[in-house]
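Hey, can you fold this one?
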Amino acid sequence: EVQLVESGGGLVQPGGRLRLSCAASGFAISSYAMSWFRQAPGRRLEWVSIINSGGDNTYYADSVKGRFTISRDNAKNTLYLQLNSLKTEDTAMYYCEKPGLRGQGTQVTVSS
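Sure. Predicted structure:
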C-alpha cells in the first residue's frame, strides 16, 4: 500500500523541541521532493518546508526559518522535521506530503 505515516508529535513547552518522522511505504521517496505542511485549528493549511530528492536543497516558510530543519534518509525511506525553539503558534497538525499523497498527520501542541 502506498502511504505516508507521520509520528513524533506531542505536547511540549514553549522553547522545547520535537523531531517528526514520516515513514513512506509502497514507493521510494528518493524519486520525489518531499514537503511538510501544517494546519492549526480553524486555519488554512500552511506549507512549512520542502526538500529536493537528493536532500541538498531545502526551503522554509519565513515563520519557521532558523528554527525547523527538514532532512531525509532515502535509504530508510523516511523524511524528518526537527522542530526547535517551539512557540505556541507552532501548535498544529503536521503532515508530510509528496505530490499527490499526504499522510494522516501528527499533532504538535506547544503549551505551558
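The mean pLDDT is 97. Let me know if you want another pass with a different chain boundary.
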